[in-house]
Amino acid sequence: MPALYLDIVGKKRGVNNNIILKLEDVKTSYGRIEALKGISLFLRKREIVTLIGANGAGKTTTLMTICGIVKNSGGHILFDGEDIKEASPQKLVRRGISQVPEGRRIFPRLSVIENLEMGAFIRNDRAGIRSDLERVYSLFPILRERRKQKGGTLSGGEQQMLAIGRALMARPRLLLLDEPSLGLAPMLVEQIFRIIEEIKQGEVTILLVEQNAKKALSCADRGYVLENGLITLEDTASRLLENEKVKASYLGA
Amino acid sequence: MFLQQLINGLTVGSVYALIAIGYTMVYGILEFINFAHGEIYMLGAYLGIIAIGLLTAMGLGNSSAFLLLAFAFIFAMVFCAFYGVTIERLAYRPLRRAPRLAPLLSALGVSIFLQNFVMVTQGTRNKVFPQLFAQNGFDLGNAKITYIQIMILVTSILLMVGLTLFVNKTKMGKAMRATSQDQKMAYLVGIDVNRVISVTFLIGSALGAAAGVMVALYYGLVNFHIGYTAGLKAFTAAVLGGIGNIPGAMLGGIILGLVESLGAGYLSSEYKDAYAFIILVLLLIFRPQGILGERLKERS
Ligand SMILES: Nc1ncnc2c1ncn2[C@@H]1O[C@H](COP(=O)(O)OP(=O)(O)O)[C@@H](O)[C@H]1O
Ligand SMILES: [Mg+2]
After folding, report:
1. Contact A90, B173 (CB under 8 A)
2. Which of A124, A175, A212, B31 is deepest in the core (most CB within 10 A)?
3. Which residues have CB under 8 Å from B83's CB, separation 6+?
4. What pTM does this model have?
5. Cβ atoms within 10 Å of A43's Cβ, excluding its own
6. Are A118 and B174 within 8 A, CB to CB?
7. Looking at CA atoms only, how far is residue B266 from chain A in angstroms?
8. Where are the domains of chain A?
């Protein structure tokens, strides 16, 4: 059933099974608060898609719903064409979804290297893990220097790098980034976005949640605007950058 | 006298430490005090007696004391590990999302159940742990360390070193620490948190059982209510070291054993059991995070 469904969607949009993630009318509630009121979005393989919206719009909830940390009460989430509504978080990581969560969530009393090892928790290919560790170190040389240090002793920027590195250690096919630039100095923000572009060179599809809409739209292929749990706009990133409403609400112009 | 009290204190302290580890590991991950843990220790003591009884019934009672004891340890640890994991499954896991008081009450219920179960099946009278080793040992000046004390110290150290290696070097051990530091993130990296919790109960209970066997051997007597005082003291040791912190539990246990022993030797042995609770009260007032505790946890 899901495969057939995807085919129809694929034909409708003129792409063929190229969609890695699709949310269909997804609703998520916390008790009586309905944080997502039925959102639909999709990501093609190797795209960077950004989800922008004000504080409290439901961006984090969207990512947590995709990862199975909170369960959606309605709608469907298709990953690789399969409904993942009932899948446990660890199963989703195994299938290739990793998240860099809001606030980084570094394990504070694990060393840098242990944090990275935990990123590879679901894997058993020692050689592959070791080579990915080298890759993360070459992406973020500072992490190699700090590898014996406790995660909690790192600066904000270093923690963000560690959080990204940790997510990459799972060798994800879909990477969810929740406000990676939040609270970082401008120079570090630049660096983080450069890294995101670099990650895209691999086989990774990226869903980027940002309040820094300008930066996010400049590096993304497409974007969605989320307001109060509803998607109110969707378009290519370049057109969203020119959109008057986006300019007024999110680009501070 | 000081040296003698030191030896006695270290012996009792290492037992407290082993029990305290169970409290602290569970607290580290679930943020709840498993009040039934003292009962696991009590069960361990009984299972040790039962194990030796079984061997004796099979006509193996004359085997070497070391073999008998090794079997008693393994028997008690395996059964208690199983009990611990089962208790978590049945009594705590269904309450994971309930208000904080619920699992606490459930733990008290389990504790009362286990005490009564043992009372009914084993009787209210003291049980005697077979004398496997002679009561003598080595003279150290005017102090003496018995073979049993040496055995307790060595076994405790081995178990604690083993646990430390496990927690710091193995993947499961690291996952355990990760889960205690940020459970949501543990889920996000794909850690099977339920499995981590089961392993936590398994290890804590096995160590508690080992402590039970050792105390039974040390004092030679076991009763269905020994879990209560020992549990409270080990809990104090865990708080003393910083609840949630494994090295802290070890340190707290040793310190508590020493305080008790030196207090009994130099002040008054009448109040031996009270020292632990005086420490607990002082701690809660002046340093609730304990010696090695960094801060009380906040979690989203
Ligand atoms: N754990 C939670 N419990 C209750 N309400 C929550 C919780 N997390 C988020 N919310 C609510 O859901 C809405 C969306 O929040 P969130 O997804 O964090 O938004 P964003 O990431 O866009 O800032 C907000 O109204 C927020 O208050
Ligand atoms: Mg958010």
Report:
1. no
2. A175
3. B40, B43, B205
4. 0.91
5. 22
6. yes
7. 40
8. 3-96+173-250, 106-171
Instruction: Say if CB B32 and CB B106 are below 8 A apart.
Output: no
**pLDDT > 80? residue A4:** no
Mutation site, B174, B189, B298, interface A, largest A CB count within 10 A: B189
Please name the member of B175, B184, B192 whose beta carbon is closest to the beta carbon of A118. B175
For A:52-71, CB contacts with B below 8 A are 67, 69
User: Can you tell me whether residue B17 is helix, strand or coil?
Assistant: helix
* Residue from A107, A114, A166 to probe the interface with B (highest B Cβ count within 10 Å): A107
pLDDT in tens, A110-148: 999 999 999 999 999 999 999 999 999 999 999 999 999
According to the model, what pLDDT value does residue B295 have? 56
The strand ranges marked E within A31-179 are 33-44, 48-52, 74-79, 82-83, 97-100, 174-178
* Structural domains for chain B: 2-299 (1.10.3470)
Between the alpha carbon of residue A217 and those of residues A163, A208, A212, B5, the distances in Å are: 22, 10, 9, 71
A75 CA → ligand 2 middle, Å: 21
pLDDT reported for residue A9: 46
User: Which CATH code of 3.40.50.300, 3.40.50.720, 3.90.1010.10, 3.40.50.880 fits the domain covering A3-96+173-250?
Assistant: 3.40.50.300
